[in-house]
Amino acid sequence: MTGKTRPQSLPAVPTPGYASLVAGITGLLDEARRTSARAVNALMTATYWEIGRRVVEYEQRGEKRAGYGEAVLRLLSSDLAARYGKGFSERNIGQMRLFYLLWPIPQTLSAKSGPTLQTASGKSDTTTPSPLRSVAARFPLPWSAYVRLLSVKDPGARRFYETETLRGGWSVRQLDRQIESQFYERTALSRNKAAVLSKGRLAKSADAVEPAAEIKDPYVLEFLGLKDEYSESDLEEALIRHLESFLLELGGDFCFIGRQKRLRVGDEWYRIDLLFFHRRLRCLVVIDLKLGRFTHADAGQMHLYLNYAREHWTRSGENPPVGLILCAYKDEALAHYALEGLPNKVLAAEYKTALPTEKRLAAEIEKTRRAIAAHRNR
């Protein structure tokens, strides 16, 4: 969420140097957040490498039969998820296993004490178990970067991107952009490799990551067992909260499930603004709010959400989920139901009868947007 604006009722501070004071404190807090995120990421990466090592060693002592490894991951995922919640799907544990196999460490570090993690004060962190400190010292990048590197099949390219990420201080966004643009292949084919490297290392404005975003990285939130509930702007948050209240006030059919609910498709993370269950329709209602114009990409993304909800969140006996895209563009409001994929037209007609009309929803969005704008302009 963006920072709050300074209340207009506060008097101006005439003291010279106040702007420098604010700038200094802001820099201190941002650096503290980044340092905290780096410390958590180091411990998380070391922990996941160690989990991968233990899984591989257990498999090597096990039976030599087809499907044995998959069965181990499936059972381990079930046991860990029951105790720790999200973050331990079969896919995630498989990534930890692959991480250990692709980034081997010559000696078993659990038998000896290695370098220690440093805290923001520069002192050694004695609270982290010694084996994890030793492993963490070998992996300076955040876990999300290693997850992205796992998808690079060529060992040479993988080492190249890891080295360049570390050398250039790339964010995960920049690393992803370079992999997608085949930076390694372009560099290898170029006659003037130095020029290609120099140009490719330049960061773009879209690569920048705010300290708050580093802390709220989905992997970090899963590792710490924290909830992820935040919006990108005050306007968006206010609209979402009002729409939540509006739908609950329509009657007893809408049951609130969650706000800013995360889902993961492959290595990409998404957030659903609001998730309800409709008792009469016996289905999930997925709601996505857009502050800009409605586009075909919005419809495609909604269908991705619905496919995911149908496969992972819909229970036996429930109807397929329905999607609702709400657009709050400054010149118009729009509400659109995604009803494609329903098994029959009768069910689609029932959905339209039970749910509030698109026209009514659009009017409510416009009314709320104007009220929020008027309140902010006071």
Q: Could you explain the architecture of this structure?
A:
By secondary structure, this protein is of the alpha+beta class. The protein contains 15 helices and 5 strands. The chain has 2 domains: 23-223, no CATH class; 234-376, Trna Endonuclease, Chain: A, domain 1 (3-Layer(aba) Sandwich). It has helices spanning 18-61, 68-84, 90-102, 130-136, 143-150, 155-168, 172-180, 183-189, 193-200, 211-215, 218-224, 234-248, 296-312, 345-354, 358-376, and strands at residues 254-265, 268-278, 283-290, 322-327, 334-338. The protein has a 5-stranded mixed beta sheet, sandwiched between helices. Helix 1 crosses helix 4 (130-136), helix 8 (183-189) runs antiparallel to helix 9 and helix 12 crosses helix 15 (358-376). Mean pLDDT is 77; it is low at 109-122.
Q: Let me know the largest β-sheet.
A: 5 strands, mixed
Rg measurement, Å: 25 Å
Main sheet strand line-up: 1-2-3-4-5
Uncertain residue ranges: 109-122
Number of strands: 5
Q: Strand content of the residues, in percent? A: 5-15%
Helix coverage percent? 40-55%
* Secondary structure tally, helices: 15
Shape: globular
Q: How many domains?
A: 2
Encode the helix/strand succession as letters: HHHHHHHHHHHHEEEHEEHH
Q: Averaging pLDDT over every residue, what do you get?
A: 77
* Secondary-structure content class: alpha+beta
What is the end-to-end distance? 22 Å
